[in-house]
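User: My collaborator sent over this chain with a note saying "see what the structure looks like." That's all I know about it. Can you take a look?
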Amino acid sequence: MAAVANCFTAQDCNIVESSQYLDHDSGRFFMRVRYTPPVNFQKETFASGFLPVATAYGVDWENHNTAYKPRVMIMVSKIGHCLNDLLYRHSTGQLPMELVGVVSNHKTWQTRVEHEGIAFHYLPVSSETKAEQELAILRIIEEQTIDLVVLARYMQVLSADLCQKLNGRSINIHHSFLPSFKGARPYHQAFEHGVKLVGATAHYVTSDLDEGPIIEQGVARIDHAMTPDQIVAKGRNIECQVLASAVAYHLEHRIVLNGVRTIIFK
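Assistant: Without extra context I'll predict from the sequence alone. Here is the result:
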């Protein structure tokens, strides 16, 4: 910590936020520093100045300019509450991103998306056309230089190949408090089992279905008097909040992967 702080001071950088965490199990030390640079700041010069510290302590590090807004693409199917929430947060400046486009295998939300002046890509999918559709998705990602893909209730399983290509830059919202009630109609499953808590989980996408590193989770209490529709409504509110938080953490570079777990510097 002292070596890092001294390096910033020596380069006339002002530290405005610093967070640290030591994982005793792995012996790894994690640190996130937000700073304001001097007027004549040069990224290459800073990197040269930081290199002795990185070498001495074996540091894996990244330097991000928060003035740059990551380019984001949202994928959605027919259920649009998470999409609507992200569109609203984007329009009001709550998320530091450039929303480049929305991909969907249905036309349900085309008018809504285009009303915001955002490109809508209709890419229907079937078992016969899945590979072709994923190639089209990849072309959009590459042509539009997408930094982050958000699966806002996109109800298609991505192939292992596509998951690998999006490793660390694709976030999914799962409509339950993992690992319970996987699959279809999770809130109805919860109702049938008389559970007292429902929730949602946002995680990075991996080829292991719904088992990627968890970024954020949320829960809410329910009771016996609630109908399945009321439980669904409460659950969808949680999904929106959890997904928005996870996306914000990623955009603000607050997430560090620690094996299959995440460290979130809030």
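A starting point for your reply to your collaborator: The two ends are 18 Å apart (CA to CA).
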